[in-house]
Write a structure and sequence with these properties.
The chain has 9 helices and 45 strands. By secondary structure, the chain is mainly beta. The protein folds into 2 domains: about 120 residues, Phage tail protein beta-alpha-beta fold, CATH 3.55.50; about 600 residues, Maltoporin, Chain A, CATH 2.40.170. Helix 1 runs antiparallel to helix 3.
Length: about 850
């Protein structure tokens, strides 16, 4: 490929093993090529390009306008475009796109050159690298936007690819920038700061809630993944809550019933994690940090073209974390390796393949055994220290999880798009030993699980595009999906002589309440001898669904969204004795042809404000039984929502207010009795109402000032005393890059408040009063490559319960302490 001696150096094709060897001085030069050498048309063109990373916006612009756009990637890095919408000339559109970025353009023949103001465009020589703007790009990427909002479209709600304002449901996006600013390393950390989500702790077990109901729908890149499931205290799959987030671009949380694309689930929310994608220009960074409780973490992220033309692009992300905890004898170690490659098979066809490998090792794990506030007889036990841990130092597990995924996308000449996704995930826990103590004088709980495996497979295909009807352009989506989850686990009994021989001294020790309060499970002797098999768990879940959605353009300012899904669901679960082969549990469920309708209406009041209303439902099969041992009917939740959404500063700031009410057409609550096997018995109830308000804003309040905040109120008539959930929440996170001579400094703060929570047992009620928690962040950028950050969590060292839980039949009341003040300092180098 001929080049001039004045040409900027290109990042050549590289292999994954050489990614880290590139000099930071090398600059990737991108050239966006629109349709082949078309003449620039003088007439106006219809544009609809939201604000997004400038390099992506220019590619979208070139494709729509049919022009070649030349630029230096170094000049575009870190810049965000303005939105352009409506009919205008090519020059008008590119001028608006670049407004406020410090860049200008020159227009010659069929090409537009973008360059920094004050630079002589004629002196810029660019390589003739052909990167076709017809190549499929993701305009929703938040990485590199430096924003707390998503300007591009989201498909999480309807699959149609609508902006937040165009979506007639509450949807929250946590961007890559916010995760980096507040050092949110795991999904648990992200959800703490996510509007409308409650994070409830039961010792080391974490449950997420929205609108008063547990969240049990998890997705990665829009494909369903196995959430957290448990059986008699052992994880069949530990879910995503503790995984490292270094490989994720953003997290989208859709509130309410989500049956249109999801099928079954709770009418609470769907959490969709979106992976980072390969970039068209070279970029890389290395990050290393250290924090409280001997915690150390590092990550590396390298991305860019693998060929001179850029038609093959790759990305590798690796992260490692090793640390202890504020709880006694807890050790955690996480490893992540993520790799993905994009292939432009043609300018209109994109193939993505990749893998995600994760390891997790934990010791001192107490599973779901928190500190007990009241014993079986209702006697108050006193409070433990925040470092108290019910788990033994050797209690824990090793997990490894491997996922392969692929996506094939094609853009047809008629404007329609087709997508095929497939993923297969397998997680294993070869052995998990669990040892915890609950209260003075009580026999310690010791269990062992082996052969825990979870295999999750998913296939999704859809096609969408525009169609003309009654002189207007509308959108249509048709799709289908298939998922299959197979889980297995074996449970063992501890050696018969364990208590008699190994625990004699310990049993005497825990009889003293003072020893119990100070030591917890720290003096558990590790089990010696041969375990004996107890029972085997097997679970299989199959879901098949088809769905259709359309967005009807009734008028320029009125859009009607209609859709429906048909779902088939099959679940088989057995708990079989390993000694005599008898079935302890034998559950078989099948639901066929379940229809989940969807409707939404959006009315644009003006340039900034819209009104909307929506209807959505979802069903959730249950495994609980009534007093006669009969399975209850599936739960069905219908969500109605009305509200207003607004966007300002060309989409850089989004705001919404919503009122929702949720009608449980069918759900259940405790009946106060027992099943024939001795478990808690439940009964179906109908007509239960939950309602509330949600106010949220996210994005740029002023130049350099990013924020995301919310106020949520939720009232429920449902009688559920197991988890204590707040009725009100307030969250506000903000960062500010100082102006002028102090522009290298960014400061920020996070504030979280929740109303009181309580949980009840047969004897007592445990309460946590309303409280505030504050976090801070500071980042200083020494130059364009090197920066340092300091994060301090719970800066006022507030002492509070992060979860309280009540159980029926005199099992007591439990609590879990929130994290004390802690800090993390890190250094980052961007190449």
């Amino acid at each position: 490929m001929p080049t001039s001696n004045k040409t900027l150096p290109l990042v050549r094709a590289f292999t994954i093993g050489r990614m880290l060897t590139f000099s930071p001085s090398k600059i990737a030069v991108g050239i966006t090529l629109a349709v082949s050498c078309m003449q620039v048309q003088a007439q106006d063109i219809q544009f609809d390009i939201p604000a997004m990373p400038l390099a992506q916006a220019i590619q979208q612009f070139g494709k729509v306008a049919g022009v070649q756009v030349l630029y230096s990637s170094a000049e575009l890095n870190g810049k965000t475009s303005n939105a352009i919408k409506g009919s205008q000339s090519t020059d008008q559109a590119i001028r608006l796109l670049l407004n406020g970025t410090g860049l200008v353009f020159s227009h010659s023949d069929n090409a537009i050159t973008v360059y920094a103001a004050g630079t002589d465009a004629g002196s810029i020589n660019l390589d003739a690298v052909n990167i076709d703007s017809n190549a499929i790009v993701d305009p929703s990427t938040t990485e590199g936007t430096h924003s707390y909002t998503q300007a591009g479209p989201s498909s999480t709600a309807t699959g149609l690819g609508l902006t937040l304002r165009e979506t007639p449901q509450s949807i929250t996006v946590v961007t890559r920038q916010k995760m980096d600013d507040f050092n949110a390393q795991t999904l648990k950390d992200v959800m703490k700061q996510t509007p409308g989500v409650s994070v409830s702790y039961l010792a080391d077990s974490v449950t997420l809630f929205a609108r008063g109901t547990e969240i049990n729908n998890y997705q990665i890149d829009g494909s369903r993944t196995a959430g957290a499931a448990s059986s008699l205290g052992a994880p069949i799959n530990t879910g995503l809550i503790f995984d490292d987030m270094a490989d994720m671009d953003r997290v989208e949380v859709l509130k309410g019933s989500t049956g249109l694309l999801r099928g079954d689930g709770n009418p609470s929310a769907t959490i969709n994690l979106v992976r980072k994608k390969p970039t068209r220009d070279f970029q890389a960074h290395v990050d290393a940090g250290a924090g409280s409780w001997d915690t150390y973490r590092s990550d590396v992220d390298v991305s860019g073209p693998l060929t001179d033309t850029g038609n093959v692009r790759g990305r590798v992300v690796a992260a490692y974390k090793d640390g202890n905890s504020y709880k006694d004898n807890v050790q955690n170690r996480n490893t992540l390796l993520y790799g993905t490659v994009d292939f432009d098979l043609t300018p209109d066809t994109l193939l993505n393949i990749g893998f995600d490998y994760k390891e997790r090792q934990t010791r001192g794990n107490s599973n779901s055994t928190g500190a007990r506030a009241y014993d079986l007889s209702g006697n108050y036990q006193g409070k433990t220290s925040r470092s108290w841990n019910a788990g033994a130092p050797w209690s824990g597990y090793n997990l490894n999880d491997l996922t392969f995924f692929t996506t094939l996308e094609h853009h047809f000449d008629n404007g329609w798009d087709a997508k095929l996704q497939f993923n297969i995930e397998k997680s294993k826990i070869p052995e998990w030993k669990n040892a915890t103590v609950n209260q003075p004088g009580e026999t310690p709980s010791v269990s062992r699980y082996t052969g825990t495996e979870n295999l999750n497979k998913g296939l999704n295909v859809d096609i969408k595009g525009d169609f003309e009807l009654f002189g207007r352009t509308h959108q249509l989506l048709i799709g289908g999906d298939y998922t299959r989850n197979d889980a297995r686990m074996n449970r063992w009994r501890s050696p018969a002589d364990y208590q008699a021989n190994q625990l004699s001294d310990f049993t005497d020790f825990i009889a003293n309440p003072q020893n119990y309060l100070s030591s917890g499970g720290s003096r558990f002797p590790e089990v010696e001898g041969n375990w004996s098999p107890r029972d085997e768990f097997r679970a299989n879940t199959t879901r098949i669904g088809t769905y259709l959605a359309t967005r009807l353009n009734l008028a320029d300012d009125v859009k009607l969204i209609l859709g429906a899904r048909t779902s088939d669901y099959k679940y088989d679960y057995t708990d079989q004795s390993a000694t005599d082969g008898s079935y302890i549990s034998d559950i078989h469920q099948k639901e066929s042809g379940v229809v989940s309708p969807y409707a939404g209406l959006v009315y644009d009041l003006n340039k900034n404000f819209s009104l909307y209303t929506s209807y959505a439902d979802i069903f959730q099969p249950v495994t609980v039984q009534d007093a006669d041992g009969k399975l209850l009917d599936p739960k069905k939740g219908v969500t109605y929502e009305v509200g207003s959404k607004a966007e300002f500063f060309d989409g850089r700031l989004n705001a919404s207010v919503a009122y929702f009410w949720k009608n449980w057409k069918n759900t259940y609550e405790s009946s106060g009795g027992r099943t024939p096997t001795g478990d808690t018995a439940y009964r179906n109830v109908t007509g239960v109402m939950e309602h509330g308000y949600e106010l949220e804003l996210s994005g740029e309040l002023a130049p350099g000032l990013q924020a995301q905040g919310s106020y949520v109120l939720n009232n429920s008539e449902l009688n559920d005393s197991y988890y204590g959930l707040p009725k009100q929440q307030f969250k506000f996170d903000t960062t500010y890059q100082l102006p002028g001579a102090l522009s290298n400094l960014t400061v920020g703060a996070s504030a979280r408040w929740q109303s009181k929570i309580s949980a009840s047992s047969d004897y007592d009620t445990l309460e946590q009063k309303a409280y505030w928690v504050f976090d801070t962040m500071t980042r200083y950028r020494f130059n364009q490559h090197l920066s340092a950050s300091l994060n301090v969590n719970n800066v006022l060292d507030k002492k509070y319960f992060s979860g309280i839980n009540g159980f029926d039949f005199g099992q007591g009341l439990y609590y879990t302490w929130g994290e004390p003040r802690n800090m993390n300092v890190s250094m980052r180098y961007d190449f």
